[in-house]
Amino acid sequence: MTSPLQEPASAGKIAFIGGGNMARSLIGGLIGRGTAPGDIRVVAPSQSTRDALERDFGVATFASAIDAVQGAPVWMFAVKPQVMPGVCRELADAAQAARPLAVSVAAGITSGQMERWLGGDVAVVRAMPNTPSMLGAGVTGLYANDRVDAAGRRRADAVLATAGPTVWIEDESLMDAVTAASGSAPAYVFLLAEAMQDAAVAQGLPADAARALVLQTILGAARMLTESGESASELRRRVTSPGGTTHAAITAFEEGGFRELVARAMSLAAARGRELAAANDQPTAS
Q1: Is the separation of the CB atoms in 23 and 78 below 8 Å?
Q2: Quick check: 186 and 131 in contact, CB under 8 A?
Q3: Which end of the chain is more exposed for a tag (fewer CB within 10 A), N or C?
Q4: Is 269 strand, coil or helix?
Q5: Is the predicted pLDDT of residue 281 greater than 80, yes or no?
Q6: Which residues are bridge partners to 167 per DSSP?
């Protein structure tokens, strides 16, 4: 189910572990929707990153994750997947003492891995946003483990909804399909735009004209998909007159195996997500 933003993100502080682009996007959205900058704490190893966060948002920043999470009931993990195990293990004792809501936006990291690395018995929400979230135009798939209560779901939803609509997934095994359908999918559109621009230039259009025509067409088509209430197949049918120019192009796509290629690409993206999870599935050191 898609959820709009319903309420402030939390009744207390939010600690961001990681201060990169996704964290900045969420922080900006939270502040724009009324969260006090003083309620946001961010850990980032780089002094220049910390300076920029303080300057741009007025939030408190820290070099140490242990310091950043003190007094925060919500921990937002926005670090690269390969460093997530070490970051979580560093925070395991604090997590066992505080029992926070841990929200991860790292691709290929399961809720079970997060919970284990944090010492066990921790409420974990796994989130898969996409890059348009940086513009507030993204979409995020969310999964909550059994330890997340209704209030925890609302908190996680409120944070991620600052970047766009959210969709809750009740079966975590489907989060790899979410990755394929939305997390990785902006790149599919970018590739299509790149190919269309190249083809238009090859047909003689100036590069700036090709870019303007293709990008506005993609924007307009996206708005029709989201605002018309019609299905993609119906909208395609309406603009594909038999024997016309669009019909010629669509026929080329179909005869070239376009649907099968998209299905294969998305299957490979989902499989790679599962591989990333397996690669990170290391037992906690005793």
Answers
A1: yes
A2: yes
A3: C
A4: helix
A5: no
A6: 2, 141
Same domain? 153 vs 219: no
The model carries a pTM of 0.86
Report whether 27 contacts 159 (CB < 8 A).
no
* C-alpha atoms less than 13 angstroms from C-alpha of 226 in its C-beta half-sphere: 10
Asked if 141 and 120 touch (Cβ cutoff 8 Å), the reply is: no
- Could you tell me which residues are beta bridge partners of residue 61? 42
What residues make up the domain containing 252?
A: 185-274
Whether 264 and 180 have beta carbons less than 8 Å apart is answered as no
Count CB neighbours of 269 within 10 A.
Answer: 19
- CATH number at 57 reads 3.40.50.720
> Could you report the per-residue pLDDT of 151-160, keeping only the tens digit for each?
999 999 999 9
Would you say residue 238 lies in a domain? yes
CB distance 136 to 29 below 8 Å: yes
pLDDT digits over 31-68, tens only? Answer: 988 899 999 999 999 999 999 999 999 999 999 999 99
Backbone angles phi, psi at 194, to 5 degrees: -60, -45
Tally the domains of the chain.
2
Same domain, 111 and 248: no
Same-domain pairing of 230 and 158: no
Amino acid sitting at position 46? S
- 78 and 214 both lie in a single domain: no
